[in-house]
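Contributing: when you submit paired examples, paste them exactly as shown. First protein:
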Amino acid sequence: MKFTIVTSFYNGSKFVSRLYEKIKAQTYTNWEWVVTDDFSSDDAKEILLYISKNDRRVKYVEQSHKKEMFYNPQRFCREAEIIVQADQDDYPLPKALEVYHHFFTKFPDTIAITSCGNLFKENGDWMNFHNPNYIDKPNMACGYLTHLRAWRNNPNIKYDFNPNNWMKYYYNDLSILCTLEEQGKILNLPRNLYYYNYRDNSISHSVYGNEAVEEGSELIKRVNERRVDKDIDTLNRYFEPIHSESVCLMDHHLNNSTEQLKISYIDYSIDHKKKQILKELFFDHDFNINKIDGNEDYAVFAIKTIDDLEKFTSTREADIVKKVQLVIWDQAQNQYTQEIINRISSMYPIYYHSSYHCLINIMK
């Protein structure tokens, strides 16, 4: 299986080398990179031409008009097997292609795979988590489903491109999503496979601002109107049952590793089906459920009630904790939230953010 990564650069010369290095660092090596410059005023084109001359896996293509490849990537890679979308300020994590390859092989009827991403500032500081992809019937196109990543090349895909709307915020992702879902299932992976830069001067922030949000809402409405008579289960919901559990397994260091890390997930109420799906999701790690011996690279304790907290604090596991990240989903509705925060913060320095359950992420 070969992956064709496509990227259109616009005044993105400072991103070219960094993205190239991230692509070269992929643990799965059967890839090519198709790039173009979108009529920039900087030297992005010169840098891209230089790289393409020195690496035969990199192919530079010319466009006839702006945003041509951005909206119609398959026009420039008609022979591609799998197309991977990468914006100029996106950076795939080292195992991204390896994970895509695994699940495209495991689910041959899947036409596309979306994944989660972490958000970084331009200086490299990690800002926050992205919640896992999910499918919500009245709002299927919103949020993280629009962060489209990889799809099988298909001659029946025709992008709904409006040249008078070429700079609008959501149009690219939603347009491709609409056409793909009419051709087959979309698998949503609730784990991080890439990260991208938060930039105050990006088009969506500096040019459109609130208009981007308004247009996104309008496009989502249009997309959902097209789906009125469609069965939501045509989308692949395989990982949906572990949506909340996967939140705690999105640590940057875990997902950025090229090693087979040892992970333990402690949740005494988890059922057998969820155990199996979690293990499948993290097939590339030594993943154990409700089992810990102190040699973990990464351990997670699900703290949903005070009883769960008592179990954690009364066992030897609490003694091996080196770093705690407290993840709290829907804090207002969890009657134990404040007590859990108080108890854990009295024992460890913690970092926490909004999430579904109270989960303690532990890294040694």
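Second protein:
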Amino acid sequence: MSAAPASAGAPAGSGDVPGDAGTGASVAVAVDPFAPRTRAGRGGFLAALNPLAKLAAPVPVMILVVFSRGIALPLAIAAFAMVVLLAGTRLPGRAVVALLLGAPAAALLLGVTFGIWVDPATVAGSAEASVALFSVGDWTFTLAAYLVGLATALRIVAILLLSLIAGVTSTGPDLVRAMVQNLRVPYRIGYTALAALRFVPRFGHELEIIRAAHRVRGTDAGRGPIASVRRLIGYAVPLLASAIRHAERVALAMDARAFGAHPTRTERHLSPWRARDTVFVAAFLVVSALIAWWALGWGR
């Protein structure tokens, strides 16, 4: 009597299925290339908040940082945003190191690049203008020019860190669903945008298939700018044809399901606005206002 296969009854492509003892047989994993990727920082209290709350809190602070002057305000806001990110998310170790070391290093480096473009005449009256950091011929890079460039760099870093509060723990589909359910954005617009977002991973997968097909056919040879342009043209035509076919299939599927036939629709994934969202927005704005008051009163 023959033994039944070890994988009998298991759906095809459902994952690794261990074989009989001693055989080491297994079934290959079928990976869905279009499946949404899990965010690294999905844990923590920020992941439990409404995506709109994670936008409503930082956006006013971003506007304040854009129109700020000096170093104290963007530096304090950047530090506050970093604390919120580290406390409210579960980032991997590499991301934490990149956040703690990369952000200050980027600000210091960008301060030099922005400071080079500062007109020396605009900072000639300050005390730091007499402190020369280095010179190239007749041109001197002063501490005053570096401080102006550093202030600009800190504003960019602060805005980037504030945007990560929503970007790390929320996805595009999460934001679209929250806008449809809470801001009453017409679902015809919102879910059409959501369908467009689903195209991005599919196009990446299709591009990899096209590149592999070109390499198999030996048409991917050559170096230099002309060969790169030829490769891009060779990739663009089949990728565009695949995109058109996929868009037609999606449109037919939406029409078959009577998408847009009714003014409202039910939701599978709910994204309600809770009391904790209001508390987070209010607390974030209050702390940001206190930081701005301190920076404007005591900072430069």
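If you have annotations for the second protein, write them as plain sentences, like these:
The longest helix spans residues 225-256.
The chain has two domains: 45-170+272-288, 175-256.
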